[in-house]
Write a structure and sequence with these properties.
heterodimer; A: alpha/beta; Amidase signature (AS) enzymes; eleven-stranded mixed sheet; globular; B: mainly alpha; Histone, subunit A; two-stranded antiparallel ribbon; flat
Amino acid sequence: MTRNHLSELTIHEAGERLAAGEFTAVELTEAVIDRIVAVDNDVKAYLTLTPEKALAQAAAADRARRAGRADGESGPLLGIPLAIKDVLCTKGIPTTCGSRILEGFIPPYDATVIVRLKEAGAILLGKTNTDEFAMGSSTENSAYFTTHNPWDLTRVPGGSSGGSAAAVAADECLGALGTDTGGSVRQPAGLCGVVGLKPTYGRVSRYGLIAYASSLDQAGVLTKDVKDAAILLQAIAGHDPCDSTSMDVETPDYLTALDGGVGGVRVGVPREYFVDGMQPEVEAAVRAAVDLLAGLGAEVREVSLPHTEYALPVYYLIAPAEASANLARYDGVRYGLRVDGGGLIDTYKATRGEGFGPEVKRRIMLGTYALSAGYYDAYYLKAQKARTLIRGDFDRAFEQVDVILAPTSPTTAFRIGEKADDPLQMYLMDIFTLSMNLAGTCGLSLPRGFDGAGLHIGLQVMGPAVGEGQVLRVAHAYEQATDWHTQKPPLHEERV
Amino acid sequence: MKLSADQVDRIAELARLALTAEERALYQEQLSDILDYFERLQELDTEAIEPTASVLPLHSVMRADVSRAPSQREDMLANAPATEDGCFLVPAVLGQG
């Protein structure tokens, strides 16, 4: 494939060239579909592809652009082909959450984030693979198949938004939506070498985001560079009357926020995020990134987030507790799988026993236990109180610094199957991302270079609530000083 | 702390999950390991700490009382495993043990 193949373009590059009339949205979409056909047998990023719908949307985008030329109106997403994680409802297009229990489910409505993308003229290519109900760190918990890391097909892409991250890394879309409950956008972005941004809780509507843990879930974006993340966030952020937890505050201009550099910006480095057992190359890479930013004028200081070690148990009590309630709706009555068990109660049990995979059942059991009589105070209430302490850590740290830099995960991508039999080892992949969801703050992962095996290391930039602007600005400054984000994985194209 | 087989059955019953014998044994072991790891939470003194249920200071959010187009019955029933006369069809509830 030649450099500058259309599918390799960023959103902003493609947007400029579409506006200049160099190619049409139909040509761009065809190029991306060709790329999917050529590499997705290896990568397996998509659960569902909708090429006919995508081409129809592209033709409509081209018509809108021609009509818009007269009045000078066209947004940055007009004609841009995107991928959507399969936990976001898409009207008329199957939405499975990577689960057998929702096999064949066709939502009667679009999630608000989908409505906003469609209104902006974006093109939807299909639905990407995910760990079942977004519970996992590798896509190995998908009931359908495991997505492969485009940088090494024997390794996981991370998860749960692993399909979206792999699709962006493999140029099978120009950008993608994911969801992040405990790191599910940032961690796969880190492992696949793309940008993954989790907005502040409440910044983006959760309406139509199929619930896993409602006090933690947030839709996010996966892109090829930081500017694209700003563009996509701009499109999906903002208040939604259909989501009572969406913030009714003004959305700033994130593109303007990119500029200005890091001169005088206070960057914190949390001592608790450099722990025994992490890959030495990851620590060295993150410390080198801190030095680079200091060289660009940032003011670096050590900060402390003292309750970090409790984030894992707190998360894995609160999230499963909320999940056990949210997933009670899958009972085989109104939608999804039904397995006849005789009576009604036995039909519930049979349906859920067959429809849910092992990790989902494990978390439902854990959450049910944590909420059950006699254990509620010791587990669930205790975790909610510890959550308050974790939030307090961030409040105090962000009195001293504007952003916090840390690794996205303790290691680079692991081999498929390597952690599949040990849930606790898998949970530990999330230790650097969970706290932010518990605190409700925002942040992103961006490429920080490679380890000795040629695998991407993720650099996490964390900000306070509604601090997306300063997070994007610091990430953009780092990205502009490096070229990790322009590297492409060594995939073979199949010619069919 | 080791969960007993009876406790695992009780949790599965509350969660309305039919488990195979193999799953029961596996979850007994795995959930016990996970709960052991979580014991470290008990080190924390949280006596005077308020719990966080949501990070947002939201209470009783109201929207404008404006009517919207309702969902259509056919759309809502389209995904159902079984329907009859415009209703969801479920196994008999009465007369079951």
